[in-house]
Each structure stands twice: as C-alpha cells, then as structure tokens.
Amino acid sequence: IAFLARVALPAPKGAQAIQAVRADRSGREELSQVFVLAMNGGDAQRITSAPNGVAQFAWGPDGRQIAFVTPDDPENKESILRHDDAFEVGDNDYLAESAPTPMHVWLAPADGGEARRLTSGTWSLPRSEPPGPPSSPLSWSPDGRSIAFVRQALPHFGDGDQTMVMVLDVATGAARQLTSRKTLEGFPSFSPDGARIAFWYPREGDPNNVNEVHVAPAEGGRDSVVTRAIDRNLARSIWMPDGKSLLVGGNDGTRVALWLQPLEGAPKKLDLGRAVPSNPFWVDTSLGPGGSIAFAGSVSNHPGELYFMESPESRPRALTDLNGETAALDLGQVQTIEWDTADGFHADGVLTLPPGFDPKSRYPVVVYIHGGPQSASSESFNTLAQLLTARGYVVFQPNYRGSDNLGNAFQHAIFNDAGDGPGKDVMAGIAALKKRGFVDAGRLAVCGWSYGGYMTVWLIGHYPEFKAAVAGAPVTDKIDGYDLADFNVLERYSFGGSPWVGRFGEAYRAQSPMTYAPGIKTPTLILADTRDARVPTVQSYKLFHALRDNGVVTKFFAYPVAGHFPDDPVRMRDVYRRWIDWIDQYLGAPSESSR
Hints:
By secondary structure, this protein is of the alpha+beta class. The protein is built from ten helices and 33 strands. A hairpin with a 5-residue loop joins strand 5 (56-59) and strand 6.
C-alpha cells in the first residue's frame, strides 16, 4: 500500500500525523484519512475512518487527540443509490454533480478508537480544493478545552464570504461567535497563553482591500487591528512564543516579506537576504517553540529549498540543497523594474534577462502576467521565465493595479476597473522598458494564466502591437464568471453588485474581453482544464470560436483535469512546451541552438 502525504504535522509528544491518500492495488485512490507515524519510523497507524474523507486536522496540545474536519453524508443518501438524485442548485459552480454537504469537526483519540462528533448543523466549515491549503485551519487553545474555527453560513463555495470566527467548547460541543461580524473573518489562532485570538479580516470589510490581522480577547469583546502600519495584503500570522507579538507575512514590492508585529507598536521587517518565502496561497512559514523560523522559499537563480532562522534577528540559511544541480546552469539574471502609471501610481515588476545579455543588442520581449489579481510577481525562482530566457527572450512580469504588493490604494484601484486601468499599467511598464534601448518593439508577446489570461486577452483586444499571445484558463466573460464559477461572490465585490441587477451588467460587459474579441488580430494559443470550476472552460470555448470565426490564427488545447492548472509533471511539461513553441513560432526564437 502506497501513501501520498498531503499534510504532515508533528505531535506535541513526538509522533507525526499524516493526512494521506491511500491507493489500492488497482491504483484507485481512496478518500483522504489521518495516519500516525512514530518519528523514529515503523508502521503508520490509521486514526480516522471518515466515510467521506478528511479535509483537515489538528493535534490537540497534549498529543492524545486529533480534531479533524469531514463532510456529512447527504440527506438523500439512500435515494441517490436509486438514481433519485436531483439536487437544488445554490451558489455552486456549474460542474457540481450534487449539493454540497456541510463539513463539521470531529475528535479522534490519537491511539485510534471511535471518533466523536463535535459540531453539527446546516452551516459548514469552509471548503478547500487541493492542492491549496486548508481553509482557515483549526486552532486549539493551549489548555485543550477550546478550538477556534471558521463557520460558513452555507456549504456552497460561492457563499465563502459568509464566514465568522467561532470558539468551540471541546467538552460540550457548544460554539460561540468571537465577534459580531457575519462576513469575511478567517484564519483564527489562539495566543500561547490562550487569552487572545488573532484572525484575518479585510480592511473595512471589503475583499478588494488588504487583509489585516485583528486580535480579540478569547472570551469575546472588542477586537483591534494590529497590522495597520504594514499596509500590505497579509497572508500569514503566527503568534511568537512570548505572546506579545506576531510573525506576519505577505507580498512586498518584488519580494515576500516577514514582519515582527508587536501587539502595540511599530512592525519590524526581518532581513531575509535574497531568500523569498513561498507564497502560493499563504506565506509558507512556521515557528519553533523558541522563536526560530523555518520557511520554504527560493532565490531568483535557485529553486525551492527549506530555510531556517535561529531567531527573528538572524538571517536565513538553507537547510536543504535539493536543487543544487541548477548551480551549473547559465540562468537568466533577475532584477526589479519600476515605473509611474498615467494616473499617478508607482508600479513595479520583475525583469529576467537572458544569459549573455548585451544591453547594446535588441531582444524580443515576452510579457508574462501573474494571476490573481491579488498576487504579485516577485524575485523568486520562476520556471517559465527561466525557460523563456534560455531561448533568448527578455521576460517582463508587471505588477499592475490590483496586485497586492504595493499597499491598499494600489490594490483597491482595480475595483470596477478590471481591465482598462491594469491594462494601461502594463503598457506603461512596456513603455518604460522600451526606454532602456534593448527592446525589439516589433517582437512582443503577451501571456498569462487565470487573471493573467484575462489580461492577455484584454491587451490583444486593445493594443495591436503584440505578435503572439498565450491565454491560459482565461476569464473572457465576466457575467459567465459570475453565473458559473465556484467563487462567484468575488465578482459582486469587484463590481459592487450582481450583473442581473440594475445597471451593473453594463460594467461586467464593458470589462469582459469577449466584448472586444472581434477586433483581435494576434495569433493566440488557448490552454485550459476541462473541469475548471474557478474559470469555467466555456470561457475558453467562447474565445476560440470568436477568434477562429474572425479569421484569427488560434489553437485551443484542453487537459482532462479537474482543477485550475495541471499539477502533474507530464501535463505541466506539455503546457510549457506548447506555450514556448507558440511564442517561438510567431516571434522567432532568438536562440535556436538552445532548444
């Protein structure tokens, strides 16, 4: 029997719990369960037998019990077996084949034995889709009497804004609300003394704004913002062992920063040297009991390793050398570029120059746009950028308005301006790049995935200078995104309302790239997964037909994957191969010998 570990958490008493997928001999996956393995090896002991699998878990502080989250059975379980399986549609995505069931907290002895249900009801804990992190992990109080968690009003993914922090009494199963809010609270964590709970909440309750860290008394009462001075979209918060400060992290310019934030007083940014912590969903960082810090990260010319800091005052050192062979490669040089936008913002981005770069020569440029939009390109190792520079291209990764690396005003400026403002920011960055004298203006390509795909299609619909485009999982129709996608609630926040109410629909249509598709002339490669709930594949089909029927050179390749991006190495390699080949075909690879 093989195990594919997804999450491993050390226990207080020296064992290790693993949330794993077990495959039978035919290779079919069973549902994820929790296993315990001694740190010195031996056979793993299965702890849970949840019929619907385990979504997440957390060790109790004494190491004797494990809290875990699992979906309930559907109410019509028996009738489903008879194909009496119609379900009422709510705020679910168009790929749903059944109504989502609530997810609840259970408790299992760490040495095995019968699990006990702790919560129940029509409400749910938030859902998470692998390979993403758990949605707001469970947090035990130090005395083991309470668990902080997030309650969502309904189990549909599209109701994911209806979240509030709750405190659960482990003995009785009673849960109480920490604050009086009804929306957008997340990621609670008990302080080391159990007296406080920290949690995330967007500034002014608007998800277009930066996430801030709030702290409230664990017994309830008035909470306060402790991170206002940082003015960044925070994606990590961990209590320091003394309980007087928190380690927080988020995108900061073209880096990912860690700050030590006291409960009162100014934050201190830590010196990470060239290391850039990984930040795919949250900053991948953990703390030791003495205040040491570990994080997964990279530097611009070296892929991911595990880094360690003895204390917040020390600098990180790499503990692993898993990618040491890359030291022998001639990689692209990475640097930050900054420019001013037409309406007064100061933007930045990442520039990767090909090996042997000569500033007196002219190079074709690939504009590679990040998704999100609440994300940012950083000076971390980027596989696709390095593959492109190895072919002789200059790669430009702009951080446009809506990116979460330059403060709240810059991030919020995308409200009701999904395409035009960010597009002008990108074009201003290209203009700044051209002033450096090495850009072959006749050979520009643009590409990106998800929101990067959206911006790719927007740009080729408004600016004719691009000679090639690669649109991965592109958002092309904002109304389709609202009607069909899993997290459609974000569109309401982005535009201020539903496209089917009042005049909001006009803004949705005006900011949909499909509106401008008849004017596109750029040869365009479209890539998508067939079962993508985040960006429904129908949006790629619409773009494909619009381009093909108007005589534009286009190809569309779909991957039979349930997800937002292929995450297996065979398909990932195919994505990058088709991506690079398309750009080569229409820009002309500068370095044919490097294939």
